[in-house]
Amino acid sequence: MRAFTHAPLPQRVVFGAESLGRLPAELDAMGLRRVLVLSTPGQRALGERVLALIGARGAGLHAEARMHVPVEVAEAASVRAAALGADAVLAVGGGSAIGLAKAVALSGSLPALAVPTTYSGSECTAVWGLTRGGAKSTGRDPRVLPALVLYDPTLTLDLPPGIAAVSGLNAIAHAVEVLYAPDGTPVTAIMAEEGVRALAAALPRIREEPRDAEARAEALYGAWLCGTVLGQVTMGLHHKLCHALGGGFDLPHAETHAVILPHAAAYNAPAAPEAMARIARALGAEDAPGGLWALAGRLGAARSLAELGLREADLPRALSLATASPYPNPRPVTEAGLAALLARALAGEPPL
Ligand code: NAD
């Protein structure tokens, strides 16, 4: 067995149907008395519900979160938190709301808390992101890691199956890259494989029956596992490509992950046979790239970058963005290899 260093992040996780009801007691146990609730405008009703639930412990609701955390949005939330004398920020919603809570935590040292309603996994990482003038910068800071994460699968019952599908594939992508990461450990491998298994089992059931509470719980459990390992190891080619395409062409986050994942897995397959065997086993498929491609198809997820708005004329810039400051990857990344990968992903052809 090869040597490893395992460094889990300090975070309290509460999981279970109807566990939202435990939030007031959790805040009391942390000594928090003026919590500012953050959400996107679309999730305002949930934000209001949470604010009512926490009663006198609530400082207010700020329902202004936006995808990729524009710096002006972050500054406005920090100003609001200071004006209200908030002692913590609580994100309710997906990665956009959680990203805003992290940005406030970064600028003012208030603790961040999260009640996630998608499978992005951002709540499990100490990575923050901010967008200034269209350019996204990211960094790692222990202060932005949510101190408390409360997962209540009943809050995800209304997450539209189409969003659940791509968000779930986004989570699976974290686990896939964990399995071949240079700093992965035996524990992150077990969690990643179980995360893929849980999501691959649950997502088709959600597509068939969106209000299947057991499937919703299993998907959120899988997302937690995938997010947790994302927070502990270094990502590779797949995440590099998705960041380049998301940042450079404003492609939608989760959908881009859904399209790229089978192709990135196929690219890395020759250099990461053990990881591919574990992914295939978790998917119940013969091979990992084919299994990921089939799962995306079964879920009705986007399978081409063209569907997301990328054009053939964009490929040279996409290639140069994707090859700049590369992430560690099991197979050396060559321009020719990446060009072929992007061409197939653009056209929606199966992975090679
Ligand atoms: P999101 O938060 O924008 O949510 C996606 C959509 O789902 C939105 O339209 C939202 O209104 C809707 N939605 C969320 N919960 C819902 C519910 N329960 N019912 C109905 N609709 C619901 O996007 P996301 O995919 O969750 O997160 C993407 C963002 O997170 C990106 O900005 C990405 O960069 C960031 N991210 C960061 C990290 C990190 O470690 N820092 C990790 C993953 C993602």
From TrEMBL:
CDD domains: MAR. The keyword NAD applies. Transmembrane segments: none annotated. It comes from the Bacteria. Residues 10-153 form the Alcohol dehydrogenase iron-type/glycerol dehydrogenase GldA domain. The keyword Oxidoreductase applies. Residues 165-345 form the Fe-containing alcohol dehydrogenase-like C-terminal domain. Keywords: NAD, Oxidoreductase. Pfam families: ADH_Fe_C, Fe-ADH. Belongs to the iron-containing alcohol dehydrogenase family. This is Maleylacetate reductase. It comes from Pararoseomonas baculiformis.
